[in-house]
Amino acid sequence: MKQNIASGINLEDRAQKSSISNIDLLRDLQPTTIEDLVPQLREKEYQFTVVPKDIMHLNNGIKYYYVEIQCDEGNFIVNAHGSEAERLFKIIQSISE
Question: How many degrees, rounded to 5, is the angle at CA 20 between CA 67 and CA 78?
Fold first, then answer.
């Protein structure tokens, strides 16, 4: 199940099955931008389990970036496209250093 959680930001259940877990995952989060989301996830002590080192490009040339997070409810992917992918990459890299 994919859910748009803020402008240009999607949350997707890693199991790719219909679930309400992603609603539970975000019930206390109030993200409005990518820059807001990542610190909120860290404050909740969610673990970033997959953090690609580079931005990817889709077949149509659009930039794509994602991170996988783990919490009690399961594994989820936060992904973004285009300029939002660049922003997500930048904020993730700044906390990974």
Answer: 10
